[in-house]
Amino acid sequence: MPAPVLVVGSIALDTVKTPVEEHADLLGGSASYASVSASFFAPVNLVGIVGDDFPKPHIEYFGSRNIDLTGLQIVPGKTFRWSGEYMWDLNTRETRSVELNVFEHFTPTLPEAYRTAHFVLLANIAPKLQSHVLDQMQRPRFVIADTMDLWINIALDDLKALIARVDMLILNDGEARQLTGETSLIKAGRKIQGMGPRFVALKKGEHGCLLFGENAQFFSCGAYPLEDIHDPTGAGDTFAGGLAGYLASTCAGEVKFDDLCQAVVWGSVLASFNVEAFSLERLRSLTQGDIDERYRMFRLMQQFEAQ
Ligand code: AMP
After folding, report:
1. Pocket of ligand 1 contains residue 125 by CB under 6 Å
2. Cut 0.70: pTM above it
3. Which residues of 252-290 are buried (b: 16+ CB within 10 A; e: fewer)?
4. Averaged pLDDT in 10-residue chunks for the chain of 307 residues
Protein backbone atom coordinates (compact mmCIF):
# COMPACT_ATOMS: atom_id res chain seq x y z
CA MET A 1 0.00 0.00 0.00
CA PRO A 2 1.55 3.39 -0.97
CA ALA A 3 2.03 6.07 1.69
CA PRO A 4 -0.87 8.53 1.88
CA VAL A 5 -0.50 12.07 0.60
CA LEU A 6 -1.79 14.84 2.79
CA VAL A 7 -3.54 17.45 0.62
CA VAL A 8 -4.75 20.81 1.90
CA GLY A 9 -6.34 23.49 -0.27
CA SER A 10 -9.61 24.98 -1.42
CA ILE A 11 -12.81 23.09 -2.13
CA ALA A 12 -15.07 25.24 -4.23
CA LEU A 13 -18.16 25.65 -6.31
CA ASP A 14 -16.92 27.24 -9.53
CA THR A 15 -18.64 29.09 -12.33
CA VAL A 16 -16.54 28.92 -15.48
CA LYS A 17 -17.02 30.69 -18.80
CA THR A 18 -15.07 29.93 -21.95
CA PRO A 19 -15.66 31.56 -25.35
CA VAL A 20 -18.10 28.77 -26.19
CA GLU A 21 -19.61 27.48 -22.93
CA GLU A 22 -20.54 28.54 -19.43
CA HIS A 23 -21.28 26.27 -16.47
CA ALA A 24 -22.25 27.26 -12.93
CA ASP A 25 -21.75 25.68 -9.49
CA LEU A 26 -19.26 23.05 -10.59
CA LEU A 27 -17.12 21.06 -8.21
CA GLY A 28 -13.76 22.88 -8.11
CA GLY A 29 -11.04 24.16 -5.83
CA SER A 30 -7.34 23.41 -5.69
CA ALA A 31 -7.69 20.55 -3.18
CA SER A 32 -10.52 18.88 -5.12
CA TYR A 33 -8.47 18.64 -8.30
CA ALA A 34 -5.24 17.80 -6.48
CA SER A 35 -6.67 15.07 -4.26
CA VAL A 36 -8.62 13.30 -6.99
CA SER A 37 -5.54 13.42 -9.24
CA ALA A 38 -3.25 12.11 -6.46
CA SER A 39 -5.75 9.34 -5.72
CA PHE A 40 -4.87 7.65 -9.01
CA PHE A 41 -1.53 6.79 -7.39
CA ALA A 42 -1.91 6.79 -3.61
CA PRO A 43 -4.45 7.19 -0.81
CA VAL A 44 -5.16 10.80 0.12
CA ASN A 45 -5.89 12.54 3.41
CA LEU A 46 -7.88 15.66 2.55
CA VAL A 47 -7.91 18.80 4.67
CA GLY A 48 -10.38 21.51 3.69
CA ILE A 49 -13.66 23.22 4.46
CA VAL A 50 -17.09 23.36 2.84
CA GLY A 51 -20.43 24.84 3.84
CA ASP A 52 -23.63 22.92 4.47
CA ASP A 53 -24.73 23.79 0.91
CA PHE A 54 -21.99 21.56 -0.54
CA PRO A 55 -23.66 18.77 -2.56
CA LYS A 56 -23.45 15.36 -0.87
CA PRO A 57 -22.66 13.54 -4.14
CA HIS A 58 -19.35 15.44 -4.30
CA ILE A 59 -18.43 14.17 -0.84
CA GLU A 60 -19.45 10.65 -1.84
CA TYR A 61 -17.30 11.00 -4.96
CA PHE A 62 -14.23 11.93 -2.87
CA GLY A 63 -14.93 8.94 -0.62
CA SER A 64 -15.16 6.63 -3.64
CA ARG A 65 -11.65 7.72 -4.68
CA ASN A 66 -9.83 6.49 -1.58
CA ILE A 67 -9.75 10.02 -0.17
CA ASP A 68 -10.00 10.08 3.63
CA LEU A 69 -12.39 12.81 4.76
CA THR A 70 -11.67 12.93 8.49
CA GLY A 71 -9.95 16.29 7.87
CA LEU A 72 -12.84 17.78 5.90
CA GLN A 73 -14.74 20.38 7.91
CA ILE A 74 -18.43 20.76 7.01
CA VAL A 75 -19.72 23.87 8.75
CA PRO A 76 -22.89 25.99 8.65
CA GLY A 77 -22.70 28.56 5.84
CA LYS A 78 -21.87 28.74 2.16
CA THR A 79 -19.02 26.98 0.38
CA PHE A 80 -16.19 29.03 -1.17
CA ARG A 81 -17.19 30.20 -4.65
CA TRP A 82 -15.01 31.28 -7.52
CA SER A 83 -15.92 32.43 -11.00
CA GLY A 84 -13.56 32.86 -13.94
CA GLU A 85 -13.70 33.65 -17.62
CA TYR A 86 -11.25 32.48 -20.28
CA MET A 87 -10.30 34.53 -23.33
CA TRP A 88 -10.28 33.04 -26.82
CA ASP A 89 -6.79 31.50 -26.43
CA LEU A 90 -8.01 29.55 -23.36
CA ASN A 91 -4.82 30.60 -21.66
CA THR A 92 -5.61 34.08 -20.43
CA ARG A 93 -8.12 34.07 -17.58
CA GLU A 94 -9.90 36.74 -15.61
CA THR A 95 -11.34 36.12 -12.18
CA ARG A 96 -14.91 37.44 -12.26
CA SER A 97 -15.75 36.95 -8.60
CA VAL A 98 -14.57 35.32 -5.39
CA GLU A 99 -16.82 34.64 -2.40
CA LEU A 100 -14.74 33.38 0.52
CA ASN A 101 -17.78 32.37 2.60
CA VAL A 102 -16.78 29.60 5.07
CA PHE A 103 -13.17 30.01 3.96
CA GLU A 104 -12.99 33.33 5.75
CA HIS A 105 -12.67 31.67 9.16
CA PHE A 106 -10.91 28.47 8.09
CA THR A 107 -8.20 27.07 10.32
CA PRO A 108 -6.83 23.84 8.89
CA THR A 109 -6.53 21.68 11.99
CA LEU A 110 -5.06 18.27 11.23
CA PRO A 111 -6.51 15.10 12.70
CA GLU A 112 -3.85 13.36 14.81
CA ALA A 113 -3.43 10.53 12.28
CA TYR A 114 -2.58 12.99 9.48
CA ARG A 115 0.38 14.56 11.28
CA THR A 116 2.82 11.81 10.47
CA ALA A 117 2.24 11.82 6.70
CA HIS A 118 5.47 11.60 4.68
CA PHE A 119 4.21 13.44 1.61
CA VAL A 120 2.45 16.77 1.87
CA LEU A 121 0.88 18.80 -0.91
CA LEU A 122 0.01 22.34 0.12
CA ALA A 123 -2.31 23.18 -2.76
CA ASN A 124 -3.19 26.77 -3.47
CA ILE A 125 -4.60 28.63 -0.46
CA ALA A 126 -3.31 31.55 1.61
CA PRO A 127 0.37 30.90 2.47
CA LYS A 128 -0.34 31.53 6.15
CA LEU A 129 -2.74 28.57 6.16
CA GLN A 130 -0.22 26.43 4.28
CA SER A 131 2.38 27.26 6.94
CA HIS A 132 -0.13 26.46 9.68
CA VAL A 133 -0.49 22.96 8.24
CA LEU A 134 3.29 22.52 8.21
CA ASP A 135 3.48 23.64 11.83
CA GLN A 136 1.37 20.61 12.80
CA MET A 137 3.37 18.02 10.83
CA GLN A 138 5.92 15.71 12.39
CA ARG A 139 8.94 15.64 10.11
CA PRO A 140 7.35 15.10 6.69
CA ARG A 141 9.76 13.65 4.10
CA PHE A 142 8.70 15.77 1.15
CA VAL A 143 6.65 18.95 1.14
CA ILE A 144 5.34 20.48 -2.08
CA ALA A 145 3.66 23.87 -2.23
CA ASP A 146 1.62 25.45 -5.01
CA THR A 147 0.65 29.11 -5.07
CA MET A 148 -0.92 31.83 -7.24
CA ASP A 149 -0.36 35.46 -8.25
CA LEU A 150 -2.85 36.72 -5.66
CA TRP A 151 -0.53 35.74 -2.79
CA ILE A 152 2.50 37.30 -4.47
CA ASN A 153 0.45 40.52 -4.62
CA ILE A 154 -1.11 40.55 -1.16
CA ALA A 155 0.87 38.18 1.10
CA LEU A 156 4.45 38.22 -0.16
CA ASP A 157 6.11 37.98 3.26
CA ASP A 158 3.94 35.02 4.27
CA LEU A 159 4.69 33.37 0.94
CA LYS A 160 8.46 33.86 1.30
CA ALA A 161 8.32 32.40 4.82
CA LEU A 162 6.50 29.35 3.45
CA ILE A 163 8.80 28.90 0.45
CA ALA A 164 11.81 28.72 2.78
CA ARG A 165 10.27 25.63 4.44
CA VAL A 166 9.26 23.46 1.48
CA ASP A 167 11.17 20.92 -0.61
CA MET A 168 9.48 21.89 -3.86
CA LEU A 169 7.60 24.92 -5.13
CA ILE A 170 5.26 24.73 -8.10
CA LEU A 171 4.21 27.90 -9.86
CA ASN A 172 3.46 29.12 -13.35
CA ASP A 173 5.69 31.15 -15.64
CA GLY A 174 3.97 34.49 -15.00
CA GLU A 175 4.08 33.97 -11.24
CA ALA A 176 7.78 33.04 -11.34
CA ARG A 177 8.58 36.23 -13.25
CA GLN A 178 6.46 38.27 -10.86
CA LEU A 179 8.08 36.70 -7.78
CA THR A 180 11.66 37.16 -8.95
CA GLY A 181 11.58 40.16 -11.28
CA GLU A 182 13.43 38.03 -13.87
CA THR A 183 12.34 37.80 -17.51
CA SER A 184 14.28 34.58 -18.07
CA LEU A 185 12.47 31.57 -16.65
CA ILE A 186 15.81 29.82 -16.14
CA LYS A 187 17.10 32.66 -13.99
CA ALA A 188 13.73 32.82 -12.21
CA GLY A 189 13.78 29.09 -11.40
CA ARG A 190 17.29 29.27 -9.99
CA LYS A 191 16.48 32.42 -8.02
CA ILE A 192 13.47 30.70 -6.42
CA GLN A 193 15.71 27.77 -5.44
CA GLY A 194 17.84 30.38 -3.67
CA MET A 195 14.77 31.19 -1.54
CA GLY A 196 14.75 27.68 -0.06
CA PRO A 197 13.21 24.84 -2.09
CA ARG A 198 15.57 22.19 -3.47
CA PHE A 199 13.26 21.72 -6.43
CA VAL A 200 11.16 24.13 -8.47
CA ALA A 201 8.63 23.25 -11.17
CA LEU A 202 7.65 26.08 -13.51
CA LYS A 203 4.48 25.39 -15.46
CA LYS A 204 4.12 26.91 -18.89
CA GLY A 205 0.53 25.92 -19.66
CA GLU A 206 0.24 24.36 -23.11
CA HIS A 207 4.05 24.56 -23.43
CA GLY A 208 4.82 22.09 -20.66
CA CYS A 209 6.95 22.43 -17.57
CA LEU A 210 10.52 23.13 -16.46
CA LEU A 211 12.01 21.28 -13.51
CA PHE A 212 14.98 22.65 -11.57
CA GLY A 213 17.02 20.43 -9.26
CA GLU A 214 20.19 20.66 -7.20
CA ASN A 215 23.62 21.17 -8.81
CA ALA A 216 22.09 22.76 -11.91
CA GLN A 217 19.99 19.67 -12.74
CA PHE A 218 17.33 20.56 -15.26
CA PHE A 219 14.49 18.77 -17.08
CA SER A 220 12.05 20.11 -19.64
CA CYS A 221 8.77 18.26 -20.09
CA GLY A 222 6.47 19.05 -23.00
CA ALA A 223 2.70 19.19 -22.76
CA TYR A 224 0.51 16.64 -24.50
CA PRO A 225 -0.68 18.17 -27.81
CA LEU A 226 -4.45 18.28 -27.38
CA GLU A 227 -6.75 19.31 -30.21
CA ASP A 228 -9.70 20.17 -28.00
CA ILE A 229 -9.41 21.94 -24.69
CA HIS A 230 -12.72 22.59 -22.97
CA ASP A 231 -11.77 24.02 -19.59
CA PRO A 232 -8.21 24.67 -18.34
CA THR A 233 -9.41 25.25 -14.76
CA GLY A 234 -7.51 23.11 -12.28
CA ALA A 235 -4.82 21.94 -14.69
CA GLY A 236 -2.12 23.16 -12.32
CA ASP A 237 -3.76 21.51 -9.30
CA THR A 238 -4.23 18.25 -11.19
CA PHE A 239 -0.56 18.40 -12.21
CA ALA A 240 0.54 18.93 -8.61
CA GLY A 241 -1.74 16.14 -7.34
CA GLY A 242 -0.50 13.62 -9.89
CA LEU A 243 3.09 14.56 -9.14
CA ALA A 244 2.64 14.19 -5.36
CA GLY A 245 0.66 10.95 -5.70
CA TYR A 246 3.29 9.41 -7.93
CA LEU A 247 6.09 10.29 -5.47
CA ALA A 248 4.14 8.78 -2.57
CA SER A 249 3.55 5.61 -4.58
CA THR A 250 7.20 5.06 -5.52
CA CYS A 251 9.64 6.82 -3.20
CA ALA A 252 10.34 4.70 -0.14
CA GLY A 253 13.63 6.51 0.51
CA GLU A 254 14.93 9.97 -0.35
CA VAL A 255 13.22 11.74 -3.25
CA LYS A 256 15.77 12.15 -6.05
CA PHE A 257 15.82 14.29 -9.17
CA ASP A 258 15.09 11.27 -11.40
CA ASP A 259 11.96 10.52 -9.35
CA LEU A 260 10.84 14.08 -9.86
CA CYS A 261 11.38 13.92 -13.63
CA GLN A 262 9.02 10.93 -13.70
CA ALA A 263 6.60 12.66 -11.33
CA VAL A 264 6.47 15.74 -13.57
CA VAL A 265 5.54 13.54 -16.53
CA TRP A 266 2.78 11.72 -14.62
CA GLY A 267 1.48 15.06 -13.36
CA SER A 268 1.43 16.37 -16.92
CA VAL A 269 -0.43 13.27 -18.10
CA LEU A 270 -3.15 13.77 -15.49
CA ALA A 271 -3.40 17.51 -16.24
CA SER A 272 -3.76 16.83 -19.96
CA PHE A 273 -6.88 14.76 -19.26
CA ASN A 274 -8.36 17.28 -16.88
CA VAL A 275 -8.62 20.08 -19.46
CA GLU A 276 -10.64 17.88 -21.82
CA ALA A 277 -13.84 18.59 -19.88
CA PHE A 278 -15.28 21.04 -17.34
CA SER A 279 -14.76 20.60 -13.60
CA LEU A 280 -13.49 17.11 -12.67
CA GLU A 281 -15.65 15.38 -15.28
CA ARG A 282 -12.79 13.87 -17.26
CA LEU A 283 -11.06 12.62 -14.12
CA ARG A 284 -14.30 10.85 -13.16
CA SER A 285 -14.25 8.63 -16.21
CA LEU A 286 -10.48 8.19 -16.37
CA THR A 287 -9.08 4.65 -16.21
CA GLN A 288 -5.61 3.34 -15.41
CA GLY A 289 -5.47 2.16 -19.03
CA ASP A 290 -6.08 5.73 -20.31
CA ILE A 291 -3.31 7.06 -18.06
CA ASP A 292 -0.78 4.40 -19.03
CA GLU A 293 -1.47 4.88 -22.74
CA ARG A 294 -0.96 8.63 -22.57
CA TYR A 295 2.25 8.18 -20.57
CA ARG A 296 3.45 5.89 -23.38
CA MET A 297 2.60 8.57 -25.96
CA PHE A 298 4.43 11.19 -23.88
CA ARG A 299 7.54 9.04 -23.93
CA LEU A 300 7.35 8.46 -27.66
CA MET A 301 6.91 12.15 -28.38
CA GLN A 302 9.85 13.29 -26.26
CA GLN A 303 12.34 10.76 -27.53
CA PHE A 304 14.81 11.19 -30.37
CA GLU A 305 17.78 9.19 -31.60
CA ALA A 306 21.30 10.59 -31.85
CA GLN A 307 22.54 10.70 -35.47
P1 AMP B 1 -6.02 26.77 -11.38
O2 AMP B 1 -6.78 26.67 -12.67
O3 AMP B 1 -4.96 25.71 -11.24
O4 AMP B 1 -5.52 28.15 -11.11
O5 AMP B 1 -7.05 26.45 -10.20
C6 AMP B 1 -8.38 26.80 -10.28
C7 AMP B 1 -9.09 26.52 -8.98
O8 AMP B 1 -8.56 27.37 -7.96
C9 AMP B 1 -10.57 26.80 -9.07
O10 AMP B 1 -11.28 25.58 -8.98
C11 AMP B 1 -10.86 27.75 -7.90
O12 AMP B 1 -11.95 27.32 -7.13
C13 AMP B 1 -9.58 27.75 -7.08
N14 AMP B 1 -9.25 29.10 -6.59
C15 AMP B 1 -9.40 30.28 -7.23
N16 AMP B 1 -9.00 31.31 -6.45
C17 AMP B 1 -8.59 30.77 -5.27
C18 AMP B 1 -8.07 31.31 -4.05
N19 AMP B 1 -7.89 32.61 -3.87
N20 AMP B 1 -7.73 30.43 -3.07
C21 AMP B 1 -7.91 29.12 -3.23
N22 AMP B 1 -8.40 28.55 -4.35
C23 AMP B 1 -8.75 29.36 -5.36
Report:
1. yes
2. yes
3. eeebebebbbbbbbbbbbbbbbbbbbbbbbbbeebeeee
4. 94 97 98 98 98 98 97 98 95 94 95 97 97 97 96 97 98 97 98 98 94 96 92 97 97 92 97 97 98 95 88
